[in-house]
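User: Please predict the structure of the protein below. I'd like the answer in structure-token form so I can feed it into my own downstream comparison script.

Assistant: Understood. Taking the following sequence of 202 residues as input:
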Amino acid sequence: MASIDLKKVYRDQYTARAGKPARVDVPERPFLVIDGKGTPGVAPEYLAAVESLYPLAYGMRAEIKKLTGDGYTVLPLEGLWWADDMTAYRGNRKDEWKWRLMIGLPDVATAEMAAQVLPAVTRKKDLAVGERVRFELFAEGRCAQVMHIGPYSAEEPTIDLLHQFIVDQGLQRRGLHHEIYLGDPRKADPAKLKTIIRQPVT
């Protein structure tokens, strides 16, 4: 029996340097995902999504450990962000933000496994929006990413740095703004929070 650190298995996807954007290729992997709209960390829909997503991720881990004998560290929360009117996104009108929250799974996870585990855990834990969480294969391909250290509200200079790097590399942005939350905002000093900012490119 082994305990596997998935952040090391997928090291290049969960490591980045502050102030030093870099390119990375992100292959197709399985995730648990849920979509919604509203202010992150505040909107009831957002809070319910997070409170449902984690127990389901732990449920998948328990099932995989039962089948394979190997445990693993549950991966961090990730978010894709956009708005129908992107001036709302850069204008900080957070109630208009749309999001897709995600937690990565090991490659051994399958849709068939999720079809059994997700409803069972949703019923057992009485998860408010557990029925909206789904299993999905997700790939981003070629991306650029950088580490942001500090509060989420201070991300804009880091995002601008990443976007300038993309221009300097002769690339163009595509797809959705992606954030990977390596710190726990409930416990960490906001000044020390670590967030990987990722942008797919072409």
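That's the full token string. The chain has one domain: 3-200.
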